[in-house]
Amino acid sequence: MAGPLRVTRSVLVPERELRWRFSRSSGPGGQSVNTADSRVELSLDVRGTTALGPVQRARAEERLEDRLVDGVLTVTASEHRSQLRNREAALQRLAEVLAAAIAPPPRPRRPTRPSRGSVERRLADKKRRSKTKKLRRADED
Predict the structure, then answer these.
(1) Looking at 30-34, 60-64, 122-126, which range is the least confident one?
(2) d(C-alpha 30, C-alpha 130), whole Å
């Protein structure tokens, strides 16, 4: 588990830039729940990290602006009983959030027109439906 955090193939966050914090978890744990610090908070300073280039940093700050506190992204994990498994979950969660934030935007949609056949089918269906409804009406004579 020690070592850099791989976010994408090209983005590797150095271990020294990750900040860990541990506290008591409110989840399962039996008798040891009140003594073990199994809840994990993992923080990364997005503005100050050396792992991201200027474009990726700007993209991450823009997309994560609701989650950042003074430029720091924090994820928590407390679903497991052991601190080790919560550490792994927090690392995975941070990598997923960061990878989604720095992903390039999708290609813009090229607008297309409906084909002639689809337009004709749509109009034929409308006429057929109109005729069906017209036949259901009472005579207006």
Answers:
(1) 30-34
(2) 68
Beta strand pairing call for 39-45 and 18-23? antiparallel
Residue 59 near residue 43, CB atoms below 8 Å: no
For the segment 82-133, what is each residue's pLDDT rounded down to a tens digit? 888 999 999 999 999 999 999 999 999 999 999 999 999 999 999 999 999 9
